[in-house]
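Appendix B. Chain record.
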Amino acid sequence: MRFGVLGPLAVWDETGAPVTVPEAKVRALLATLLARDGGPVAPDRLIQDLWGDRPPGKPAGALQAKVSQLRRIVGREGVERQPAGYRLRIDRSDAAQFRDLVARARATTDPRARAARFAEALGLWRGEPFADFADEEFARPAAHRLAELRLAAVEERAAAQVEAGDYSPADDLADVIARHPLREGLRAAHMRALYLRGRQSEALASYTGLRTRLAEELGVDPGPELRALYESLLRQDPGLAAGPHGNLPRPLTPLVGREAALARLTGSPARLVTLTGPGGVGKSRLAVAAAGSPRSAPDGVWLVEFAGVRGSAADLAETVAAALGIRDSADAASPAQRLAAALRDRRMLLVLDNCEHVVDAAAELVTTLLRATGDLRILVTSQEPLGLPGETVFAVEPLPPADAVRLFTERATAAAPDFTGDADTIAEICRRLDGLPLALELAATRVRGLGVRELAARLNDRFAVLTRGSRGAPARQQTLRAVLDWSWELLSEPERTVLSRLAVHRDSFDLAAAEAVCAGDGDVVDLVLRLVDRSLVSVANGPSGIRYRLLESVAAYAVERLADPAATRGRHLRHYLEIAENARLHGTGQRMWLARLDAEAGNLRAALDEAVCRSPAEAVRLATALSWWWLLRGRLAEGRRMLSAVLQVAGPNPDLTVLNGSFALLTGEPAPPDSPGSVRALWLRAYSLFSVGDLAASREVNARALAAAEDDEWGTAAALSLRAMLSLVRGDLAGLGRDGLRSAEIFRRLGDRWGEMQTIPPLAALAEIKGDYAEAARRQHEGLAIARELDLQAEVSARLSGLGRLALLERDWQRARDLHEQALRSAAAHGYAYGRIHAEMGLALGARRSGDLDAAERHLTRIRDEYRGLSSTAGDHLLYAELGFVAELRGDAVQAKRYHRQGLEYARMLAEPRAFALSLEGLAGTAVPETAALLLGAADAARRSVGAPLPPAERGDVDRITEAAQRVLGASAFAAIFERGTRLPVEDAAAVASGR
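Structure tokens predicted for this chain:
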């Protein structure tokens, strides 16, 4: 849907047809949510906005009713309930479209195109913002912001029109100025348009009228820019007849992905701004665009290219003077001083491009010019800052993924009009090329001959592929290698050595790694920081502190120049082996070590690859050290793959063979014959057997682990936690509580948060089974906090589903839905299939219990069809039980019985009394009343046999089926048959249910 606030409140569907929002309070609710621009609004705030000081008797219920009415209009997902309040999902709105068009207009350098974009933006307006809520307090801030932006767009459009030679604002602005008489930007555009239309007296009169009004009402004079324009009008300055003069080149292609950067640059008040960044990132292109944006520079905007200049500040000054047409003189002053004297009274913008190779001389010249002038502004591009007081450094970053794809696609389409390519391959090309605009443009020229798939495949040899640039570009920008050659030539020998050694890192690294890998090259830290200044090494703040990285293209270039590759990679391997072996993943410090190993994931993989190729003994040590990190982080496929690779080169190794077998089971493969020896190896094997559903073998191996643990507290706690899960599966609730609580206490004492989290599912399930929902919720919230603390996204999804299940038991359907949808989004975002199954099942349970059988069936069939083979036996049992209940509620007893009998087969596999009970209860709903009473009695007895009778919140189906049977049999006859069923053995009851 699309929402409209640029006038009266409006809603349109996807076809553009208007959607009616019929009731006044519902319209007000929509308006107040729109006024927050998609942010959450607390219920109390909404109640105040809708009813003011006269709320209804039950305000929370009344608000919920209005929310429900609004959801019927915008869709259930359209209004989200979050902890901070209600939030409207705004996919499209005229306000957002208006802001986007204004931003695009401001980033457009051509004045005619800029004026057209402003006109398009202003064409979206239908009246005053939030027109039908103008008197409401909640709408005023948003309406004011939009009105101000609208007025700014009118002003900037008029300025662009005049710059493009369209003087219609001379008449068009009259009404606007009458409403906003003190706005100087409007006056400036109006005065210039009047003057250029030949109406000089009106232009001067407009200024005089403003000056008088400002003096009378505010006691101030017009600003300096407007005064300067007035003086230009008086002397009939010929420069008024054209836009800002200078020598800026006209770009041949539009600038892509730099709207935010342009807005920041054009709004900067600094007199000296330096754009820094690696070669090919687009500093020069951005500088030209920023310099060409509308801004006061009466004496012009001048670009001076330093790429081909060498020498001192005097040499640079002479280059600038030549570009500006300033003649030399015979006085004794230096060229820099003469240039400064010539520019003393000029209000101009000077763009000094490509200063990295003359940075000291450029700094000297800029200092001289800025000290001698008052209104000169200087924009510099350089791979490193000038390092001057008052300098604003603006780092030009590579394009983000979406903008990189847009640039590549536009340029590829221009080079090959029939261009097609799949999105994944294009995204991979853009990622491999680091989002560098020059590299992307070079790559786009190759699409016509190679196509995107072949281009992507050849990027391992990128310097051979990206060899043909635009004929009009400088030589240093004709190929990717030439770009990097330029940067390399500017480095000292120690800087080159360090850069080439840093290139062996994968992804990013810290200073300790740089010092270890680059040992013997002087002050490594100082050299790294110098490379940062030169934009060859980038810096980022991560969870574990400051990290450094090289762009992939820089790394590929530098590693070609590595003089001692074997020694450097050896140092890299030893450094990361030491980190892995020192990691303490059991007990206190676990969170810190997990975060550190996560940050070093790429380097750890690279080190292990190197060890597999060169040092099998170190490969065994590193793979063994990393195995617990792989397990805790769920990187099971990676662990299995790397353990197998190490075993192939290292030969027989009992400990590694055991680890490999356990990881094989965890990834769904058979384990080779082996014999775990240590407590933790035994536990890992038991844990992996449990994960694949071999409960008997898991129980036997886990018992051996527990018996062997002795003084190993972590091993004891881990074995107890697993035994608690095994007890849950077979319905031993007493054993579950005993082992789960003891395990949690040991893990808590050890400070092992991951281990403590393993006890959450069984203990929360125990509390839920016993009807203690407050305790179950406490456990689930505790687990959610730990999962977020350790950044375990699979567990985050699982705990959200657990909380959603509890909301279902409390009959809070909306909260249950919100929690399960959060769980589903989290699981989908991180590729967690089991989490998606659990969340889908929670949504199905909630839909059926709230009466939405169609939604319930959609979720259940999706689980059955899309996740076939992934669900556990217990999961399949619940799936068919729920399908059976849906069919029964639809009145299809035959289909319901078929589903419940399938569920009964899964219950037999589980051999768990509560599973039998659920299937018997489902079949009771499809049976004649006498059989129903018998099956319900047998189910009740099965549940009570493990101390888990149905709590009141879960009795909905049983009570419904009981009431139906009692209506036919009568209460006493039903009770008698029910009692007989309680004495019926489970298998006999199953036989009755199966019709045998």
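Further analysis of this model is presented in Appendix C.
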